[in-house]
Amino acid sequence: MNLTVNEHPTKYSVLQYLYPVFSRRAEGLSLGINLNLNKSCNWRCIYCQVPDLIRGTPERINLDKLEIELRYMLNLIMNTDYLKLNLPEDFQVFKDIALAGDGEPTLSKDFFEVVDLIGRLKIEYNLFKSVKTILITNGSKIDNVQVQEGLKSLANQNGLVWFKIDGTNNKETNIINQINVSTVNIKHRLEVTSKLCPVVIQTCMFKIGIYEPSLEQIDNYINLLKEVKPNFDYVLLYTIARTPQLLEGKNLTPLSLEFLNKIAAKLNEFGIIVKCFG
Ligand code: SF4
């Protein structure tokens, strides 16, 4: 077994854009696509696991090369013992193609073309129903028309948006994501996204130094999710599994699964489904 949950290398042998990983959240093989080869993002989350992350925008995507890489990996997965050789026994399933990688994927000027390419290849390889296309996003570019077209294409190919909500107001997002996003903005972005494609909320919580998230922070989180409940299907609540790469994240440590489960139980009281990952 070669792929592990503890390493998500975005450089896999000769591939430039693709990186296959064993995903604990997907419970199987996730074929990652990295659209930010220069490690650029418009956020700077303190738990970020991208080494040498920069603020900025990604370079243009070589769509021909991306297609060659996708065909190479899809042939490997579908026509060889690849899953058997690389995944633990109970997880030898090709679960999703994930737009994630070393920065925010929707910053790419080629975002729509990439989503469109994935959709065409999924039809060709008969993966339309069995394999999801997942966009992992901070939601910041959702008002961009090209991004919205990409989300429509995503919805048409059994797609799902994992929408990041770590903080619920300017103060919290400033500390956690090192960007100011107001509660009004979060709600707006989530509402627009949910009208285009099914949404799952993804939230990372952790200890900063000795401090767990405060009661106020947890209440804010629960109240926001209660309010925006019509705009998402369920919540992925997780803690850090790997060492944060930014200097700002050096004093972060994981929360216990018990801590996450308590928050999940409170959300369950309001009919919100939560999957926790320790
Ligand atoms: S949005 Fe993602 S890539 Fe960007 S800083 Fe946050 S965790 Fe890192």
CATH-defined topology of the domain at 18-201 and 232-237 = TIM Barrel
Q: Give the CATH H-level superfamily of the domain at 18-201 and 232-237.
A: Aldolase class I
Main sheet: strand order:
1-2-5-6-7-8-10-12
Strand content: 15-25%
The sequence of SSEs as H and E is: EEEEHHEHEHEHHEEHEEHE
Summarize the entry for a quick read.
The protein is an alpha/beta fold and 278 residues long. Helices cover 33% and strands 19% of the residues.
Structural commentary:
This protein is α/β, with parallel strands linked by helices and 278 residues long. It has a domain of 190 residues: Aldolase class I (TIM Barrel, Alpha-Beta Barrel). It contains 8 helices and 12 strands. Strands 1-2-5-6-7-8-10-12 form an 8-stranded mixed beta sheet, with helices on one face. It has a two-stranded parallel sheet with strand order 3-4. A two-stranded antiparallel ribbon has the order 9-11. α1 runs parallel beside α3 and α3 runs parallel beside α4. The longest helix has 17 residues. The chain is globular. The structure holds iron/sulfur cluster. The site of iron/sulfur cluster has 10 residues, from loops.
Show the helix and strand layout.
Blueprint: E1 18-23, E2 28-34, E3 40-41, E4 54-55, H1 63-79, H2 82-86, E5 94-100, H3 111-124, E6 132-137, H4 145-155, E7 159-164, H5 170-176, H6 183-196, E8 199-204, E9 207-208, H7 215-227, E10 235-238, E11 252-253, H8 257-268, E12 274-277
Parallel strand pairs: 2-5, 3-4, 5-6, 6-7, 7-8, 8-10, 10-12
Antiparallel strand pairs: 1-2, 9-11
Helix pairs in contact: 1-3, 3-4
The structure holds iron/sulfur cluster.
Iron/sulfur cluster binds next to loops.
